[in-house]
Amino acid sequence: MHADLNADNCLPLPESLLKAVGGARRFDIVEDNGRLVLIPLNGARTGEDMSPADQVRAELEERGITEADLEEAVRWARRGR
User: Fold this and answer.
1) Residues 70, 79: Cα–Cα separation, whole Å
2) C-alpha to C-alpha distances, 14 to 17, 69, 71, 72, nearest whole angstrom
3) In this structure, which of 13, 24, 59, 74 has its CB flanked by the most CB atoms within 10 Å?
């Protein structure tokens, strides 16, 4: 299978491949020895079916940021008051 970059510098992905990764709509992209590797983020629940708050929660989870991390960050930010 192959895909060509379009004029908008976008790479369309075949539907069959998207279905194979659970319908993911967002991906991490990494370079590995001259190859681009797409890593699905959080399965199918990363797009339009999520509220903005759920999208933020999913992004924090994907980055490994815990509730304790957030509490610590708030304490740090407020310490100078």
Assistant:
1) 14
2) 5, 38, 42, 43
3) 24
The ranges assigned to domains in the chain are 1-45, 50-81
pLDDT tens digit sequence for 50-78: 678 878 888 898 899 999 999 999 999 99
| Kind plus residue range of the DSSP H or E element containing 18 | helix 15-20
Joined together, the tokens standing for residue 70 give: 């957030």
Look at residues 33, 37, 41, 32 and name the one whose alpha carbon lies nearest to residue 62. 41
pLDDT given at position 44 = 46
Alpha-carbon distance of 20 to 44, in angstroms, equals 11
Residue tagged 């629940």 (tokens): 45
